[in-house]
Design goal:
The complex is a heterodimer. Helices cover 0% and strands 57% of the residues of chain A. By secondary structure, chain A is mainly beta. Chain A starts with a strand and ends with a strand. Chain B has strands at 9-12, 18-23, 35-40, 47-50, 64-69, 72-77, 86-93, 99-101, 105-109. The chains are: A mainly beta, B mainly beta.
């Protein structure tokens, strides 16, 4: 049974860099994309971006200038960095497995537990 | 890449059916059959309920069904149960390996 375990700092000051990591337990890293998704308190979900086992990355255009997703395949982990955070970045951040249909990212079938990141001075 | 449009809330009584709509554009919902639906209970991570417009993952009750017409996808829940009360989000492939979510719909079981 594949599980995703995520961790990272939960309280940041404006202008700092958000850093989260997600570990893939019990399954293969290849054959899937691995995504980050966020949810501001009381609001909807927003896709941040994804990485595949080869290290290719794809980002939401609205966040692309501030986001980096990377992976360490030797550890079956992938990470998110979001620079220059503001209060508007306060959200629960989720990592998720993205399964593919003929190479196209299709849906998110396994989710991490979520990490609340609060940006406050 | 704009969020897909969902009604803010829907409601129904136990045993009834409800349908939640998800409207996009020809660049997302209307252009691909990669629409998925997620159920989220308070304080929990979302759960995949429907993918590829109408397919159900193993373990999802057949009370949940999906469809699509043009730029609008729909999730129908039949035989409503109390535990179906949750937020529901649609999601669509939007080209160039990107995905976009809807704003979410709160389902209340009366």
């Amino acid at each position: 049974q594949v599980q995703l375990q995520q961790w990272g700092a939960g309280l940041l000051k404006p202008s700092e860099t958000l850093s989260l990591t997600c570990a893939v337990d019990g399954g293969s890293f290849s054959g899937y994309y691995w995504s980050w998704i966020r949810q501001p308190p009381g609001k909807g979900l927003e896709w941040i971006g994804e990485i595949n086992h080869s290290g290719s990355t794809y980002y939401n255009p609205s966040l692309k200038s501030r986001v980096t997703i990377s992976s360490d395949t030797s550890k079956n982990q992938f990470s998110l960095k979001l620079t220059s955070v503001t209060a508007a970045d306060t959200a629960v951040f989720y990592c998720a497995r993205t399964f593919l249909y003929f190479g196209i990212p299709d849906a998110f079938d396994i989710w991490g537990q979520g990490t609340l990141v609060t940006v406050s001075s | 890449q704009s969020a897909l449009t969902q009604p803010r809330s829907v409601s129904g009584s136990p045993g009834q059916s409800v349908t939640i709509s998800c409207t996009g554009t020809s660049s997302d919902v209307g252009g691909y059959n990669y629409v998925s639906w997620y159920q989220q209970h308070p304080g929990k991570a979302p759960k995949l309920m429907i993918y590829d417009v109408s397919k159900r993952p193993s373990g999802v009750p057949d009370r949940f069904s999906g469809s699509k017409s043009g730029k609008t996808a729909s999730l129908t829940i039949s035989g409503l149960q109390a535990e179906d009360e949750a937020d529901y989000f649609c999601c669509s492939y939007a080209g160039t390996y990107s995905l976009v979510f809807g704003g979410g719909t709160k389902l209340t079981v009366l």
